[in-house]
Amino acid sequence: MATATATSRSILARPTAETGWTSWFTTVDHKKIGIMYAITAFVFFLIGGLEAILVRLQLSEPNATVLTAEQYNQLFTMHGLTMVFLVVMPMGAAFFNYLIPLQIGARDVAFPRLNAFSYWVFLFGGLFLYSSFFLGGAPNGGWFAYAPLSTSMPGNNMAFYSVGLQILGLSSLAASVNFITTILNMRAPGMTFMRMPMFIWMSLIVNFLLLFAMPVIAVALFQLTFDGVFGTSFFNPAAGADPLLWQHLFWIFGHPEVYILILPAMGIVSEILPVFSRKPLFGYAAVAFAGAAIGFIGWGVWAHHMFAAGLGPVARAAFGLSTMFIAVPTGIKIFNWVFTMWGGKLRFTTPMLFAIGFVAMFTIGGLSGVTHSVVPHDAQQTDTYYVVAHFHYVLFGGALFGLMAGTYYWWPKVTGRMLSEKLGKVHFWIWFIGFNLTFGPMHFAGLLGQPRRTYQYGPELGDTVTIWNRIATFGALVIALSVLVFTWNVIKTQRGPKDAPDDPWDARTLEWLTSNPPAHYNFEEIPVVTHRDEFWYRKYAEDAEGRAVPRQAGGSTTEVQGQPPAGGDTGDPDHGDGHEHIHMPNPSYWPLVMTFGLPIAGYAVIYRSLVLAAIGGLLMFFGFYAWIIEPVAEDDAH
Amino acid sequence: MQAAHETTLGIDHRKLAIWVFLGSEFLFFGAFISTFLLYVDNTPEGLGVELFDIPFTSISSFVLLMSSLTMVLAHSAHVRRDMRRARLWILATALQGAVFIGGQAFEFTTFVREGMGLTTSPFSGAFFVLTGFHGAHVTIGIIMLLSLWKLIGIGRVTPMEDVKTEIVGLYWHFVDIIWIIIFTVVYQIPAG
Amino acid sequence: MRSDRLARRWWLGLTMALAALALAACGDEPQSAMDPQGPFAQKPDDLWQIVFVIAIVVFVIVQGLIVFTVFKFRERPDDTSLPVQTHGNTRLEIMWTVIPALILAGIAVPTVRTIFELDAEPDGAMTVQVIGHRWWWEYRYPGAGPDGQDIVTANEMVIPVGQPVRLEMTAQEAGGPDNAVIHSFWIPKLAGKQDVVPGRITTLNIQADSEGRYLGQCAEYCGLSHANMRARVDALSDDQFQRWLADQAEPAAEPEGELARQGKELFFREGSSCVGCHALNAGDLSSGAQVGPNLTHLMSRQEFAGAIFELNEDNLTAWLENPSSMKPMRPDFGVGMPDLFDESDPEARREIQALVAYLLSLL
Lengths: 638, 192, 363
Known about the structure:
The structure holds three protein chains of three kinds. Chain A has helices spanning 23-26, 30-58, 69-104, 112-131, 157-185, 198-230, 244-277, 284-297, 313-341, 350-372, 375-381, 385-415, 421-447, 463-495, 534-539, 590-607, 610-629; strands spanning 540-542, 548-550. By secondary structure, chain A is mostly helical. A two-stranded antiparallel sheet of chain A has the order 1-2. Chain B is mainly α. Chain B is elongated. At the A-C interface, helix 3, helix 8, helix 9, helix 10 and helix 11 of A face helix 1, helix 2, helix 3 and strand 9 of C.
């Protein structure tokens, strides 16, 4: 019954829609924002996958002519940019968005409008980057854009890179401030750090990594933009500058970035393995601290991406050692995951299959990573398909497997429906086989002399290399098939009834206390937390032998002894039903308005247009000002 | 908005957020300063640290430093609910910031006249982009201060909302600290 | 128990499959990094052998644990009780922290030692300068000629067998760092790769212990034709190498045949594009340009255009007719060979014929 009243506190009437199409444009609800992140990231995943398939088709034969060199160089660059910045990072953000408030017992994030802003900037940044295809050509300098190549390419391709990534970086930086504040400051009463779900631990670490890594790439990109647009000489060797400066700045960002890519999936898997092993995460403290250690040491390994770049032997030895060192906390986590399963009663649901797959495949990627740390041999491995194999095992075998596990696991909570187990298993096995067929052979192709980033290879590399490439191409098509299976699963499931129980998996964490989907305000009453895995603790006690036994509470698992029932999505959230005490932030236009200014300003930089700069700047300024003045929530008279 | 006593750490969300954000800003400026240090000697004869006028920059640095004092006074006044004084000190802070920016503008135009522009050398590019971004941060701070001054004046920021002045203050102090670092690392040590 | 036997069979099968794959991979493909042919490739390979074995062992243990766990602890349909809620085990934590750390420390020692060994300038090393261009390799042998002349060649480096060679490398376009980009010189059988950077000198040691031709290519993305920037090293016996040096130091022989002589005239004609880019020492006439490869002894090589085409009449003709159609380049942007002839013009085709005849004479 909330009406649209033009208050004296807002410049325009505050939007009020909570349902329907338009409500999505002005929503500040973390759950809706999480869904938008996920859908957008999935669409980009399909696009990035298509780019990969085109790349693989070109590489299925020596000297193939499926693509021209220029097309190939744009496609492999965009494939990398898309998968890193428009798929894996936003997918992580989708999970952060949806789950963090629910798992810590909060109603939303600390800054709901900033949250919406982060999403819209991501979407617009991605669209801006892709608009380059229609405006002279997409970035073609590799996702890592080494100078001086990146400032020596004809056309605006790399300008779209430096400006587009800058815009996207803003999204992540804003989100990191938001999530750190949320996790530190909005935990339910009683939820100490050591009682937080492991996913929250990983989220906290990732967001600190984002907080500190994004400014470094921002600086690098500003310098790249200045070199390209204003003629400065940050990276121009002819002017006496040091091209390696770019590499250092990029990788000081780039290495924490890869932990940003993997830790969310590690958090997800740390939630899923215990549930389907029916016992807690083994070595919780060790896993948490290992994660923090990885986050910390990850700042000290960046130059292992530069072992062939021309650093002296002392630097290479030092970074080789730090890279070896970081394998230790990684190993700790892997063993803890395996021992979570050990002694359990394993249920092989689809999320569990993906989670186990994660552990197995990430191990392979981690091992090839350790071989990279053997610096003299890395001089053979680096810049070959061996590295491509390594990072796809950790990013696909790791991050994507983990994100898929999370997708299947939390699907019922978000949509009220269970994805089909049968189709899920088909998806898993085809995906697993396709993945290994694609990237397994690349280890060998690389060691047999096939370099990266080459639009063609010659027959003189030998028949074996050609065969491995053919298998890899075939594998990519198998992966594509598995994605079709998944998409079909989603379509079929969403057509069906919303009949998933609130706690279908007999899970351990607070989000399963809520309805499917949770009410706008998440919890009727903010839960009081007395234990780690609070929800499990409310359902089960441990007997003398340490076995879990259900508690006496007569009734469903969502009924908790002595606690009021969890809220359902019944009617108007702000009026009636006894929810008057819950004040939720209102929707807002301003994040979207402000976001519009960013790509406009971006085009202004690329096309050196003062008019566009003024429009973009004004939109951002006006949008920001209106946002600051607008209160978080309008207080309707009661 | 969550009042301080309702938050897990007992600190206002916005105050926590500005601290967190300033953490990232340290790395932002750290990367620019590192770049400058790499290029500190990378410039033609006569177009480098020789152009610095340390006495002049010391004066503008002093002004910026004093502005942090008036900022503290502004916040303190707001905590005491003395809004008249708060506005006074806020304005004084903004004014000193503007003097600093004026000094920067004068300094930069002098350098350009003496032959060192943005694109002259890696040194000059690194110098101007670093100090330019700092100046942009100061300018944004001045806008925030003037907005705060106005919003208090029209009652949109109330005497109870001293956290808002505190947040602007934290940002302002940060910008000042960065300048102290820049003045030492970029001006004094290389020119010394 | 049935599940244990099954698990063991899985484990065994997995290991065998892996071993088969690993063996299949260890070939002597022409550009294989697993077939060292000299000490500077052997040392990294020695480290690799150790680390690879350790990695396989760890792989088998971890994957074996996973497979075993998955089978042994699967939920039995008749058993709905919950398992013991083990929270952790400190002793295990310590074990799997300390043991990997020790293994890594074990690998670290020879690794660091090898880094420094490979970096040092070898005794009695011959120096060759390597300059990476877009998209070809230039090699200079300073003062290596019989009379102290510099020897300059492209794409195919010739070295004496059994002799350490110290490469001093950089990246340039037309003699300077302007417009140059980073490349990486890599001949897997002779050494790991080393980036070449504009404005800097990087070094790499190589040595071939047997005569033969070793394949490699640029291994740092450098734009459009990064894939077409191949490198070759020919290791000759010491005698043959000395003869090669002497031959390279000589100016190009006078061409025989009318067509070839016309070609020479065209090449050195006033205002010709050829001498604008290519160095060629023809004795009486010579060009010192440094934009494109030195052509003085073009036919002493086997391939051209970044070692992607065999040197023969057809390929050279097609190249002169339309270089960009054979190899993606951006001459309009200052990188790569421009399209100099309108091949539909019969006069141009005649000129090309003559030039090709001349080029083919440059032994």
